[in-house]
Amino acid sequence: MACAAVIVPGLLRSSVGTICAQAASLRLTSGALRHLTLTSIMKSKRKTDHLERTANVIRREVVSAAKVCGAAAESPSVKRLHLLVADKDFSFKAGQWVDFFIPGVSVVGGFSICSSPRLLKQERMIELAVKYANHPPAVWIHNQCTLDSEVAVRVGGEFFFDPQPADASRNLVLIAGGVGINPLLSILRHAADLHRDRANKGSGYEVGTIKLFYSAKNTSELLFKQNILDLVNEFPEKIACSLHVTKQTTQISAELQPYITEGRITEKEIRDHISKETLFYICGPPPMTDFFSKQLENSHVPKEHICFEKWW
């Protein structure tokens, strides 16, 4: 999800160090969390507030401390963060987001996790990728965040891929626009982990084929290019991608050339992948998600097979 802003009461306005000691774990009572959320919404004046937009979305009650342990530019406008979350009760499903509480910043961000649940399980780490915007959380991440900065996070969201071992195998079509790649990359990485598990153990959920359609302005704004191509090359029989650029002005590298299409993702490309075994996950600007979800419905894809999340 894109960064959104909302007023936060004094509980989180002071140093996060007081509420998330040494990036270990933080527990607020259910009543305190409900008060925090409701008060935040009532005080907010913005029409695009993250907490207000997601007020009716399921989220976990545990707020966990996190420490920034890595930061790098993913593109000219996007910064990638690695967060260490020591709280063993912190978990998420591939595709979900976090409420992002920042020390000294009186607003809450909302950012999709782009790493897989496996990374958290093995290394207690999650990954975010935040596009610069004139919102306090994004401004802080791009201009003030440093290694060892302490924040707090809470998981939410109903957009996720979490198959159980006995579930029927499904194909996945992932449709991303811009930073809408974030939750879809988490889903792609999770599906790859599930496929590795089944290959190694001979049991577990059987992943079907996965096709990623991803559109951005130009190749420099196609996030996680190498990560995506690494998975395509590791599992050529399972994973394929089509990368679209709409305003490319420079030469496309030889490595990317086979995967690049100049122009938007088309309805026909998506329609060619419709089957009763396929689930569609869409994340991007609202006009894009509205268009493809409507086209899929018009093509008689069951609503329960169409999952989408808009970012603002």
TrEMBL record:
One Pfam short name: NAD_binding_1
CDD domains for the chain: FNR_like
Organism from which the protein derives: Puma concolor (Mountain lion)
Record's keyword terms, sorted: NAD, Oxidoreductase
UniProt GO cellular component terms: mitochondrion
Superkingdom of this protein's organism: Eukaryota
UniProt GO molecular function: oxidoreductase activity
FAD-binding FR-type domain span: 50-164
Name of protein: Oxidoreductase NAD-binding domain-containing protein 1
Lineage: Eukaryota, Metazoa, Chordata, Craniata, Vertebrata
